[in-house]
Amino acid sequence: MSKLDDVYAKLQVKTGAKLALIVLDGLGDLATKSQGWLTPLEAAKTPNLDALTRSGCAQGRMIPVAPGITPGSGPGHLALFGYDPIEWEVGRGVIETLGLGIELKNGDVAARANFCTLDAKGIVTDRRAGRIATEVCERLCGILSSKIKKVGTTEVLIYPGKEHRFVIVFRGKGLEGPLTDTDPNREGLPIAEAKPTDPDNAGQKKVAKLIADFYKLALPLLAKEKTANGFLMRGVAHQPDIPTFEQRYGLKAAAIAVYPMYKGLSQLVGMTKIEGPETIAQQFERYVKEYDNYDFFFIHYKYTDKAGEDGNFAAKVKAIEDFDAALPIFLAKKPDVIAITGDHSTPAAAKGHSWHPQPVLLHSELSGSDKLDRFTETGANSGSLSVFEAKYLMRLMQANAKMFDKYGA
Amino acid sequence: MSKLDDVYAKLQVKTGAKLALIVLDGLGDLATKSQGWLTPLEAAKTPNLDALTRSGCAQGRMIPVAPGITPGSGPGHLALFGYDPIEWEVGRGVIETLGLGIELKNGDVAARANFCTLDAKGIVTDRRAGRIATEVCERLCGILSSKIKKVGTTEVLIYPGKEHRFVIVFRGKGLEGPLTDTDPNREGLPIAEAKPTDPDNAGQKKVAKLIADFYKLALPLLAKEKTANGFLMRGVAHQPDIPTFEQRYGLKAAAIAVYPMYKGLSQLVGMTKIEGPETIAQQFERYVKEYDNYDFFFIHYKYTDKAGEDGNFAAKVKAIEDFDAALPIFLAKKPDVIAITGDHSTPAAAKGHSWHPQPVLLHSELSGSDKLDRFTETGANSGSLSVFEAKYLMRLMQANAKMFDKYGA
Q1: Do A407 and B72 count as a contact with CB atoms less than 8 A apart?
Q2: Which value, in Å, is the radius of gyration of the alpha carbons in chain B?
Q3: Is A331 exposed, middle or buried (0-12, 13-18, 19+ CB in 10 A)?
Q4: What is the structure's pLDDT at A408?
Q5: Nearest CB partner across the interface for B37, out of A371, A396, A407
Q6: Residues on chain A touching B358 (C-beta within 8 angstroms)
């Protein structure tokens, strides 16, 4: 914990305020000539967001991690939750596992894995085993998990993903990551050895031994398969021991997300998963219902990112308009502090995540007003919040909730 | 000292330039619907500030300490003076003492104190001794300070404040703070023991012993009082050994402030207190008179903060207009670099200090122009200085005074 974190902790008081963080995944975008120099947020018709903006909001843009760094969903959300994404690294194995909707416990070590093809000498000839069907993957994971429950005293959990992908979780005492990949990263080489990244780390050494032993048990079980007779492991990492949202902010938090990845990320910081809703309207309805039960609500909307990833400008506009249409359901129960933003930008022109600072809208009794008529990237550029690191959004939300005492006399 | 501070120090040169920092306390504010979406700075008629702005100024906003942190006057001014307010903490006892206009020396340990009522068993029955009249406080402090000049070899200085409040200063060798309060923070408990916050700190241990010994000497002197027969100490802290303004910047600095607190804060960094002026017009006149005697002028105007604290929007507008009316006196002797800003925001809507970045106006031959007609929060949002931490203002002023060599070739 930094000295500044320590100052925040000392100043923190309970106020009973309600806070809501609404994340339109990959919201930020770029104005390009082909779209008449408009971003999706600018092109979309958003009467409800406009009305909220005019009722008194501050705007700005947030650097998701650091200048020029494009975040995955993990670091993007950790920052939104107020955890420095450089300090708190969540390994790929953990993210992949969370993405499958699997709950991890502190101390678990998880790895993403994929089936591969080995020749008679154990050389990798196809790193993706010809992209076997998901059903084949499920069958093979079934074999592995029915035959291998433990390695020594350590529990082993195996979950199938899509096509050749699956995850392996080691659950036991004294385990630590990260380790190097067993994936040689190109064909023509044998399966690599998983090595500790810190040679003196006892927990990592234990996991290295576990992985070697696991291979000895697992490979014979796949020996009769033609294409998927081996497997490679990547991103071997342990679930970090992150202070929970309640420990850090004294806020009882609920996550209303549809996709497993975001439920998982919220759970990583100890939020309660609210299951059930499948549309943004249902998510907002559920928020209204749960309003009295929590102090903080994280509401995640996926479709802006999806459209951006597909490079589909019109679909991103539509996703924003769908969100806007549902917004009045949420506003029926207005919390003390509302933040609406993305976890990063996913510009349609980039067909993927990017480093461009995402716009953020902040509304509270003390947010003041930037006198802007709409919430847009261009408006946010001149907003009073300016450009800041996303990890500070929670601190601004807390300040707006009057959760901090004055610093010094 | 940080690595960056070290770089600044190495680049620093003498130029003979004159710099002026004019602080309108609590200047920053919020645009709210009830005031037609205007801030006081926007609502005020400021022809002189407008003319200065149009003559070529850069604008921006400053984060007083860190995102979401609301500073007291101490951290707010330390940052304006270019000292990191997270690194240099000035304890409550020190601030309170400075606020009474008492000069402290490096190494002094000061505590805010208040008289309280004790029952026969020494239990605190009223933490404020029924808010005794200031005259009673003065009489009791007179008794204590006439009877107790020293504890061991350490000098003890006692100064009355308002009602039940007073301050105690220990002056001697090897003293350090901070210590825990002797105030039990609620009635029904005995006076607490002042304990070192760092159990291994010899200076703190010495002060703990001093405080215990001081109680043994002082309590019998109050034994006959009915209501004010005890006292509680809070914010026991030592005057930090801050490098002076002259050491840090090579600038001979004068403080032209009316309120004791700000004279005290400027003295903490070694500025010369200029006594006498009582109005902003008089402060500016004195500045003109002293122009040749100093390199740097800190001019402090209190009434913007006062109006903000009272939630009095109209009074804050008036305070700004009064300031503006006097500004031509100052401008008659234009220094090379002028900065006009606040130490933080005190929004009328918040009736107190806040974390919102305060606007700053910078004028020099090299400030450039943001082509804005007025100095306002909204204008500052789009200014060339953008949003930055207040601790860097001094560095920008130095740069504008051509006080830095080029870094690297």
Answers
A1: yes
A2: 23
A3: middle
A4: 87
A5: A371
A6: none
Closest-CA residue in chain A for B75? A408
Pairing of strands B154-160, A165-171: unpaired
- Whether B192 and B184 have beta carbons less than 8 Å apart is answered as yes
C-alpha dihedral (A193, A196, A200, A206), degrees to nearest 10: -80
Chain A residues with beta carbon closer than 8 angstroms to that of B92:
408-409
User: Could you tell me whether strands B253-256 and B296-301 are parallel, antiparallel, or unpaired per DSSP bridges?
Assistant: parallel
Q: What ipTM, to 2 d.p.? A: 0.89
Rounded-to-5 percentages of helix, strand, coil across chain A:
35, 20, 40
Distance from CA of B331 to the nearest CA of A (A): 30
Chain-centroid distance of CA B145 in Å reads 27
- pLDDT (tens digit per residue) in B216-274: 999 999 999 999 999 999 999 998 889 999 999 999 999 999 998 899 899 899 999 99
Apex B25 CA angle, B19 and B31, nearest 5: 115
Give the chain B residue whose CA is nearest to the CA of A12: B69
User: Which of B381, B382, B388 to mutate to probe the A interface, most A CBs <10 Å?
Assistant: B381
Give the B window 34-93 contacts with A, CB below 8 Å: 37, 61, 65-76, 85-86, 89-90, 92
What percentage of chain B reaches a pLDDT higher than 70? 100
Q: What is the pLDDT of residues A346-372, one digit of tens each?
A: 999 999 999 999 999 999 999 999 999
Q: How many angstroms away from the CA of B41 is the closest CA of chain A?
A: 14
* Number of Cβ atoms within 10 Å of the Cβ of B112: 27
Q: Does B332 touch chain A (CB under 8 A)?
A: no
pLDDT(B1) > 80: no
Q: Compute the C-alpha angle B350/B356/B362, nearest 5°.
A: 125
By Cβ distance, the residue of A56, A384, A409 closest to B72 is A409
**Looking at residue A99, what is its pLDDT?**
84
Residue of B100, B93, B91 lying closest to B232 (CA atoms): B93
Q: What is the pLDDT of residues B325-383, one digit of tens each?
A: 999 999 999 999 999 999 999 999 999 999 999 999 999 999 999 999 999 999 999 99
pTM score: 0.90
Please name the residue of chain A whose CA is at the shortest distance from the CA of residue B352.
Answer: A406
3-class secondary-structure state, position A15: coil
Q: Domains, chain A, ranges and CATH?
A: 14-88+242-400 (3.40.720.10), 95-238 (no CATH)
Note the pLDDT tens digit of each residue in A32-79.
Answer: 999 999 999 999 999 999 999 999 999 999 999 999 999 999 999 999
Task: Give the residue from B356, B360, B377 with the most A CB atoms within 10 Å of its CB, the best one to mutate.
Answer: B356
Q: Give the list of residues 6+ apart from residue A66 with CB closer than 8 angstroms, or none.
A: A86, A389
Q: Using CB atoms, which residue from B61, B89, B96 is nearest to A386?
A: B61
Predicted confidence band at A277 (pLDDT cuts at 50, 70, 90)? very high
| B357/A384 touch (CB, cutoff 8 Å), yes or no | yes
Q: d(Cα A168, Cα A153) in Å, to the nearest integer? A: 16
Residue A60 sits at φ, ψ, to 5 deg, of -175, -170
Beta pairing, strands B358-364 & B337-341: antiparallel
